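Hey everyone, long-time lurker, first post.

I ran two proteins through the pipeline my lab uses and got sequence/structure pairs for each. Pasting them in order. The first:
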Amino acid sequence: MESKLPEKMLGMKLPGDAKVQPVEVDVPKPGPGQVLLKMKAASLCGSDLKYIYYEHTDKTGGARYDDVIAGHEPSGQVVAVGEKVDDFKVGDRVVVYHIQGCGYCDECRKGFFINCQQPERRAYGWQRDGALAEYMAADASTCIHLPDFLTYEDGAMIACGFGTAYQGLLRANVSGNDRVLVMGLGPVGQAAVILAKALGAEVIGVDISEERMAMAEKIGADYVLKGDDDVIEKIMAAADGKGVEVAVDCSGSAVGRHRCLEAARMWGNVVYLGEQGTVTFEPSPLLLHKNLTLHGSWVTSVGNMEKLVELLDRKKIHPSQIITHRFPLEETAQAFEVFATGKTGKVCINHEMRRETEQEQESGR
């Protein structure tokens, strides 16, 4: 553990127009109720790509500030502790829930900081400095202890990606009694496949990308189907002709959302997780007459994220298995370029890669 912290650090900002801006800034100091983290891993999110990397928009629930360090999927180690922090000490490994709410509204009291509507709400990497830097100041109330089994890369996968998938499965009460359809096999869809299997369900995955279909097979989906014109017939064949108990849309597409309604069996549950886009459907035959329950789900709560960490530890599941590309912090621009192809699993900034490179250079290798 470092005895003395540096004064300056490298960070990455996203000014828009598909650009990444490296900056040198002061290392933050933890205030009351905060800890300072040495970042170990930070993964990239589709919302970063869509709404910050390309252009600054407010389509996901809050305007993005121009002058902040990017990254809202952090995992790191505590290197300094501010006043009034009792639950964390120097050396602790943590994963960070990626939003801090006001702390006093109904949603914050439930632990759903994501739903806070007050002006105090700040998301890491959106309205406050985030994870794409060497250090990050984090509110202790957003930090969760990372068990020894889970790596820092695992931790970076949890808050936004796996937490979002887990909350959707909780909404539908997924269990071993269910067949679960996951429509769209990007990173959140892959997380949904892994977690639905961990909860005991049989899983059908659907996508149009050959690369992502191959990933779903690798992580254990029972059936992986191409999202072509015959996919509903294929889903029905895999579900005894009755349809699935739970259909989860992670595609955010009109076609994917509609097909979830089509594929759900009588009295089934449909969960919409994918952001943006639209959907149009006839309520009578697809929703009312099938007695379906349609859920909207957005991220998770701090409490449910703690339960997810416990589940992953107990089941010995590494979320990092969906990482397909890793980059050091200095190569964040290349990481976004690769992620933007739409053919990857999760893309992760591994802060340890820089340290390994520096050590190799120092040793003359």
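...and the second, right after it:
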Amino acid sequence: MKHDFIDRYSKLESPVHARDARAKTIALFVIIIACVTTPPRAWFAFCVYAGLVIVITAASRVPFRYLLTRMMVVVPFILVVAVFVPFMHKGGAATHWGWLTVSNNGLLVLWNVTAKSLTSVACLILLTSTTHFPDLMHGFEQLHVPRFFTMVSSFMYRYIFIIVDEAERMKRARDSRNYHGKWLWQAKVVGYMIASLFLRSQERAEHVYQAMASRGFDGTYPRYSEPKMGAGDYVFMIFVVATALVGRLAVLWT
């Protein structure tokens, strides 16, 4: 099984893919920070952030359909907010739809959560879709991200497909024994599968660690050359950061 679902389009050739991982990380995280700290009524600022995401996506040649599909991961959380928030934030004006009364303050909170979550997730998807995962982790290390985080993430990337394969084999074995799962008491089979998968994953992780330690693994991955940021990397980073800050600071001017 291939595990390119994390960075499926990282092998494309584009001006964004050619940029250093550090430049893309700083630029996209500045967009996220600026977005989440923007007041919900700053419509111009949110338009700037959305425009940046669209421009970077177009320049990276990552399909917009792929980006939108991956962004749907936050939709269930937004729906939870949509169900409760409009009725919890009372006060001020309200919108009446027949027997249904919704607080305008609640709708504003819903807009705030939706815009910020979708923008943030889109930036993270673009970061992983335009950078090889090992290069991204190495860029994090150069930005002094704790090595524990980068090492665990690297192991996850390298071996998660093995766990998925193991889960699929267990599912085939379960289905071959005529399991249908139509009744509640049959759900305990899934619990057994989860427990078994956890134990197998832990055992395999121990074997992998022992094998790597016996070969001199010290927590770092050797690299043949250290990448250096060029003029194009600085131009990209400064452009994105400056544009995001203009959108954020425009709140103070209005």
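Reply from user beta_strand_b:
Welcome! Quick read of the second one: Residues 20 and 233 are 6 Å apart (CA to CA). The first strand starts at residue 94 and ends at 97.
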